[in-house]
Amino acid sequence: MNSDTAAIVVTYNRKELLAECIEHLQKQTYKADIIVIDNMSTDGTPEMLKPLVDEDKIIYHSTGANLGGAGGFFEGIKLAYKLGYEYFWLMDDDSMPTPDALEQLKEAGDKLQGNFGFLSSRVVWTDGSICLMNVPKESLYKKVDNFDDPVVKIKMGTFVSFFTKREVVEEVGLPIKEFFIWGDDVEYSQRISRSYPCYLINTSRVVHKTKNNYGSNIATDDFSRIKRYELAYRNEVFLYREAGAKGFFYQTARLCLHVFRVIAKAKDHKSERLHTISAGTKAGFKFHPEIKRVQNEM
């Protein structure tokens, strides 16, 4: 260990983006040890990383299977905890932190006297505008609109620059790996914020290098991606189900809106898109994943 902080990057078949992410991490003004969690990439990622591993510049861990982002972060936090790190900085492989991103998070944590559950960076798109898929939430129902104040209290953040602590993980457990993709960060951050104050740190900035800057939309997304939406609806039903009656009615309204969007705006495969919403929603009522404790996973 050369640092008290582990930068945990989950990757799958995006070696060019991963290489760029690692380059940005290596340029941080506050140094972190880099842990790459590889969801069994088949694009030459292990071969690309081998020189960095041999030179002890990164820690590489292959999951042995594609566990999705949720499973990758589950494994990454577990490994970083086992190795003794005090802080865990989570991100996807298309996250490009600016040079002082981590330093700003650490300074904010110090000013808060360590009284936080997680800190999120301000996430922007490649043109500098706010990245719409990574806007933190003040509640399950309201997104943050304050990007001016240095520190803003939030309830939910995303795994594109998500900074948390060893003691928090010990108390609240690990991310739910069964989510696979979509919603695992919402669930985890919400779980943490029930016990700790959590904040958006606007002075810490990360570029999310996605192809476009808009949120997911089952009505307009390419049909080749539609199957994964079944997991999104399953996970959302679980999240809003946990929120009680208000969550139930809110999610019902959301589902009605999404059905309307598909009927009104989808240019192809309307029946398959509607079936995906239905199948995911039904699965959500049967979805009862267990929260794993890091102490029990050692």
Automatic annotation (TrEMBL):
<feature type="domain" description="Glycosyltransferase 2-like">
    <location>
        <begin position="8"/>
        <end position="108"/>
    </location>
</feature>
<keyword id="KW-0328">Glycosyltransferase</keyword>
<comment type="similarity">
    <text>Belongs to the glycosyltransferase 2 family.</text>
</comment>
<comment type="pathway">
    <text>Cell wall biogenesis; cell wall polysaccharide biosynthesis.</text>
</comment>
<dbReference type="GO" id="GO:0016757">
    <property type="term" value="F:glycosyltransferase activity"/>
</dbReference>
<keyword id="KW-0808">Transferase</keyword>
<dbReference type="InterPro" id="IPR029044">
    <property type="entry name" value="Nucleotide-diphossugar_trans"/>
</dbReference>
<dbReference type="InterPro" id="IPR001173">
    <property type="entry name" value="Glyco_trans_2-like"/>
</dbReference>
<protein>
    <submittedName>
        <fullName>Glycosyltransferase</fullName>
    </submittedName>
</protein>
<dbReference type="Pfam" id="PF00535">
    <property type="entry name" value="Glycos_transf_2"/>
</dbReference>
